[in-house]
From TrEMBL:
Transport listed as a keyword: yes
Membrane topology: Multi-pass membrane protein
Coarse class of the protein's main subcellular location: membrane
InterPro entries hit by this protein: Choline_transporter, Na/Glc_symporter_sf, Na/solute_symporter
Organism superkingdom: Eukaryota
GO biological process: acetylcholine biosynthetic process
GO molecular function: choline:sodium symporter activity
Any Pfam family the entry gives: SSF
Similarity section: Belongs to the sodium:solute symporter (SSF) (TC 2.A.21) family.
Annotated keywords: Glycoprotein, Ion transport, Membrane, Neurotransmitter biosynthesis, Sodium, Sodium transport, Symport, Transmembrane, Transmembrane helix, Transport
Subcellular location: Membrane
Protein name: High-affinity choline transporter 1
One Gene Ontology CC term in the entry: plasma membrane
Amino acid sequence: MVGGGYINGSAESAARDGVLYTQAPIGYCISLIFGNFFDLHNLFHIIFVAALFYAPKMRGEGFITMFDPFQLKYGKKMGGLLFIPQIFGDLFWSAAVLAALGATISIILDINATLAIVISSAVAIFYTFLGGLYSVAYTDVIQLLFIAAGLVIAFPFSLTHSAVDLGRVADTWLGTIPKESIASYIDVYLLCICGGIPWQAIYQRVLACRTVRVAQVSTLIASVFALLMAVPPIIMGVADWNATNYDGPVPIPRNMTSFILPLALNYLSPLPIAILGIGAMSAAVMSSADSCILSTSSVLTKNIYQDIIRPKASEKELVWVLRISILIVGTLGTLIAIFADTIYGLYILCSDLMYVVLFPQLTIILWMSQSNSYGSLAGFVVSFGLRLLSGEPVLGLAPAIEYYGYDAARGTQLFPFRTFIMLIGAVCIVAVSLLTNFLFMRGFIPRRYDFLKCLRQRTISMRYGTKDRELQEIEDPDVTLTLKGSQNGSNAI
């Protein structure tokens, strides 16, 4: 969560619209804290685990990744379809990181922002292409250290600079929320909170913890740490640029607010500190870029190409598919970063489809045993289709559907359409699942027409101590997912 898009985007949003509109740091941290199941040990001992009841539920069922329940219950093809929101989320995340990196490089080298994005993207793609997992593993170890070091070193100088006077901007620093924008404001907050739950990156770390307690403590620490990391860039974004050596347009135009953080580091700190701070931030952002590119490419290779298109693909073939995917993902991320004029907008957008499509899917598959692949498919098509038709200003997509209160002058939806679409998708999943279960199990539709094969029982034998699973598929009208060998006995979805 903490990376180039997070840090640069927070500074950009605070400088452009005020702290009230910098919703991502608080929203994503709430998704880690309030999205957590709590255990009561003794009287007031409350600790948290990632994702509101989600991670403990998945640990109890014995899952290893967030997509396990989808692929085990709905099949690999339907599970592969549900990877699409994750791919788009990672792609927008990559674009946000590459845009942040380009903004930083353009300030360091004093070159055109587009050229800086292309250069930085080419470097990230090149060494990810050659190094793969090893390059990401080694760079990710020091990513947060670099970000923290860069901010900690530069922040005191920026805070004490004469140009940074919080009293001067006390009336405008927080920003204002017009009455007509309250609904859309809440909509974005819900997107950040609930859209931060169905992320594989979270479960990858939480489910890898040795015990539930370790997961609880580490998640709580991570959420607090992430929130603290947003404070320095937000404060740096309110500088009085007339009191610095900055010779550009003042106030800084909205299309240049993505440069706020590197500009602050450059003009509010002594030269040696500025070089050290910007260098540390650049290295950290580069690390975010390669991990985003590799993550998306790995999903395309393993879960789409190998599981659906070519199940018998050789190891060598998969390596080349991964490399080609790296080139494609890196190129797409670069193009989005070039044409989108806001890092913060991309950062918010990366959780958009996760909220409207994946959040209801994950919630229902974990807590509704009657859900099936037909309901999942219906919910996916309706949610994904409505979201595309609703438009997206960050990507320049005009809306085909103008909801109540649509602001034609700004081209923005004031209606909380994301939450509306998410709820419609959830209703579709439940209604279609119950209807198809009834029709198939009562014989109104012959079982030979069950082309998604939802009427079957999947039994999974868990081998503790290894990561191997034995999967048996047995045709049965009882739609259950049973995990045998778990510490809690048999569990059913």
